[in-house]
């Protein structure tokens, strides 16, 4: 189907350093997708080996292979790495990056360089965690890092919790940037003629998941931020000794971490839909119903988080509401599964490894989903919570649920990505080892749960009915999984050298990625796409219509030029992250970690300015977008959601503490007159930057630059006043003993951080203007910077109301 144009393949094989440099500087979504997938495979391997260690310890009673703190560390890292570095990124940003532009018929994502930055931030956050294994030991408080477990570092000198918090914050930022980027891509960059209901189901999965991340991730950010601040500064919203409420931590945490399970599911259901349609040689059964089910899952999924907290003693009304919502969420999920089955029903099934994995998924996941619904029933949950029934449930939906769709997707798109097929035979071995292994490992755990075995204990005594036998079987299962994992890795490595060469469309897929060569050229499409999309299966429709493809004119192809600065900016944040984990801002520079902190900060700042000074495209070109909003602003609009919900979650926590009488304001509050003056300054800066934008549009550059300068000065004055007030109020109250003050410093401090970020944001277009990078065609980062500045101002109006007036 693809036209044979000799792609500009280099005649000689590039050396290792060339490839490395290429990947460090690339903006190509395919390379970034590959790097995300490789990192996730690594995450699975590390966390999987840790799981085997857990199972070895639990194989027999009173074992001493991993004891106490050590066990807790391994358990925490197993859970956290599996979730944050394997299952969440693989689908959303791994497959998502590789496939979104291809399936949309585009050349890249909306913001390629933000994409590079986000990937390296993600990778570095994993490196940060890895460092903690070797220096001081990793966190040991469970992946849920509940308060107050995080407050006791039982090993002296361990900074594991701080490291985990910082890495969650960095990883979270990366994830938000990735999500905003995807949402902007879907809005602005689709092939001409592709309406939203003509998008492949995988694209819907990525779009919905991105929106879910943008709304919900704030809960995790709030949980990690408050934990870090308590460890570093003693600011506590949770410490009951000062009136704090420990359960509030769980509200923050689960507000994200329940919706997160759909982040772990929705991209993969999209993958299943693509595979099932291709291998049944049929369109999807009930395309629109599937889209609405996805949106239904997003909506209801945001309203069920309390089912993780049934046992903490919340009011009955709360529990009932959340129990009902929990049962309801099974309905759209079930609909999706029925649609997959409906698609296969009566199709000419081509039994290849991707389809096998999907069928195995449907079978397993239905069981795991139903045990989830069972857990949503309050009395049942009371009986089995914190026991192995729960462990079995979530491995049932994760390990032999969505992980199977990781495999399905990999077997499906591997030939597209690498140009070679994997071995079908080894694929089936892999499947059967994983099936038998997972059933042996986790099915006995359901029974152990009923028999009362609690989770998160490093050992168990002799003599409990069937405990020994079931645990032993479970451990054997884990070893079978290990063998399965090795077969999988071997299959991939083998295929790269010996696999059969794949043609452009080895499975007869219907979506646009199969129109490219295998692997695709840097510019993806070598033909001009027709502009008529009759359904979500363009290749099928075009073939039927006998469409002939025209080769693309390379003059029309504009790809972002490579640049090292996003990498450097992220690297600075790694050093900065190490610095704040192992040290703090007030530590003297004789401590090398403190040096790292400031050096990292400096590198990031430098990197960002250099980045802003490097144009995205070698020569200015007109880029067609579908809406009237340019890509930068579109990305910023989506990113706003996450900022609003972050302040929303923290403010809700504060309002709750006030309402239940736990956080009465102290008699001496910070001065209202100073805050009023400050508000005036900040609001006027919003008008000034707005005027500057108008001047820019009119082409009066000198006034425009003056306007930006004035905005920064006003922001600086605001910041100075705020610092003065902070220090003054900090001397007046003991903020470690007062919940109101803790809320004040947390929220106003977070706003102050936003002033710094916003100020740097405004400095960027100023720098671009000074260096001649801005003109009528190139708006640089002006619009997003000014949008962000307005947002920071609006948030301030809310803050002054709730802290100074209320
Ligand atoms: Fe879950 C705990 C409830 C889906 C992951 N879950 C966890 C944890 C993780 C996790 C990681 O209500 C533990 C975290 C920790 O470390 O503490 N889960 C559900 C429900 C669903 C569900 C209702 N979970 C997932 C998915 C995950 C995931 C997907 C990751 C990918 N889960 C819970 C609850 C807990 C929990 C409690 C807390 C337990 C505790 O005490 O700590 C649903 O989304 C599942 C929907 C899917 C189906 C299957 C297909 C549907 C069909 C339709 C007909 C079926 C119906 C049900 C109408 C339901 C075929 C009939 C009901 C009967 C009982 C027969
Ligand atoms: Fe798990 C607890 C056992 C897979 C997620 N698991 C958790 C928790 C979470 C979680 C969130 O039996 C809760 C943590 C907490 O309480 O805070 N899990 C297993 C086993 C596997 C497993 C045997 N878990 C997963 C997956 C998850 C996940 C997948 C999410 C996506 N897990 C447990 C147990 C507990 C548990 C106990 C409860 C303990 C307690 O005390 O409560 C297996 O399915 C893992 C299979 C994978 C492998 C690795 C395959 C090997 C490969 C190649 C290796 C490469 C080599 C070369 C050798 C066996 C892929 C090296 C080269 C390099 C470059 C590294
Ligand atoms: Cu949940």
Automatic annotation (TrEMBL):
Q: Main site of residence?
A: membrane
Task: Tell me what topology the record assigns in the membrane.
Answer: Multi-pass membrane protein
What UniProt keywords are attached to this protein's entry? Cell membrane, Copper, Electron transport, Heme, Iron, Membrane, Metal-binding, Respiratory chain, Translocase, Transmembrane, Transmembrane helix, Transport
Metabolic or biological pathway: Energy metabolism; oxidative phosphorylation
| Domain named Cytochrome oxidase subunit I profile: residues | 15-533
> Domain named Heme-copper oxidase subunit III family profile: which ranges?
553-806
| An example molecular function term from Gene Ontology annotations | cytochrome-c oxidase activity
Q: Does the UniProt entry include the keyword Protein biosynthesis?
A: no
What Gene Ontology terms for biological process does this UniProt record contain?
aerobic respiration; electron transport coupled proton transport; respiratory electron transport chain
- Stretches that traverse the bilayer: 34-54, 74-96, 117-143, 163-189, 201-229, 253-273, 285-306, 318-342, 354-378, 390-414, 426-452, 472-493, 564-587, 593-613, 634-657, 672-692, 704-724, 739-767, 788-805
Give the domain of life: Bacteria
Q: Which reaction does it catalyse?
A: 4 Fe(II)-[cytochrome c] + O2 + 8 H(+)(in) = 4 Fe(III)-[cytochrome c] + 2 H2O + 4 H(+)(out)
The protein's Enzyme Commission number? 7.1.1.9
Q: Name one GO cellular component term.
A: plasma membrane
State the compartments where it is located.
Cell membrane
Family listed:
Belongs to the heme-copper respiratory oxidase family.
Supply the name of the protein.
cytochrome-c oxidase
- Native species: Deinococcus cellulosilyticus (strain DSM 18568 / NBRC 106333 / KACC 11606 / 5516J-15)
